[in-house]
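Exercise 7b. Backbone tokens:
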């Protein structure tokens, strides 16, 4: 089994437990759980699964899973063990700037990580959930400063759900945030 894709459905705790106990799970290279609501399950189930696949996992997609700061807190230690991770997406979840900073710090030690896709931070939106361009611009500046502080060349993408231009829930290519050898973009 190279890739496992379970999307847009509900998984019970027993489903998640069964996944992590599969004999071939430790050889997994790609895991896509996009659209699987994570808010109802035990917070330790996904980290346990990530620990089992950490030696081989290269791609992880947790898009639109209802992940919030408290869920990600449990996930960060296991995620930082995935040393072969090249692609990671948390698009369409509800994260604060503080959690995004923690996320960037935990993943800064992953040497192969080159594709990082995050949702716009909560602070980019009004209390009615409307994207505020000036707030987003400020968040981008803060994220760039975090990348600069970490000192490792990186490119991250911040996306919006729904897209402010077309209203669709698909990914619209935003400008990346790039830190590269003392060159800021």
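Sequence design result:
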């Amino acid at each position: 089994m190279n890739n496992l894709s379970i999307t847009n459905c509900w998984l019970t705790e027993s489903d998640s437990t069964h996944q992590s106990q599969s004999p071939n799970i430790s050889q997994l290279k790609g895991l896509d759980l996009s659209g699987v609501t994570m808010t109802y399950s035990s917070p330790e189930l996904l980290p346990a699964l990530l620990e089992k696949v950490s030696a081989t996992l290269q791609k992880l997609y947790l898009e639109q899973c209802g992940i919030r700061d408290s869920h990600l807190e449990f996930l960060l230690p296991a995620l930082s063990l995935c040393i072969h991770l090249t692609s990671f997406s948390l698009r369409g979840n509800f994260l604060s700037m503080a959690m995004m900073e923690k996320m960037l710090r935990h993943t800064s030690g992953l040497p192969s990580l080159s594709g990082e896709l995050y949702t716009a931070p909560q602070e980019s939106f009004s209390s009615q959930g409307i994207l505020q361009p000036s707030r987003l611009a400020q968040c981008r500046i803060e994220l760039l400063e975090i990348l600069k502080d970490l000192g490792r060349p990186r490119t991250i993408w911040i996306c919006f759900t729904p897209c402010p231009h077309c209203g669709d829930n698909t990914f619209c290519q935003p400008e990346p945030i790039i830190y590269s050898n003392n060159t800021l973009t």
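Instructor comment: The longest strand covers residues 154-159. The mean pLDDT is 85.
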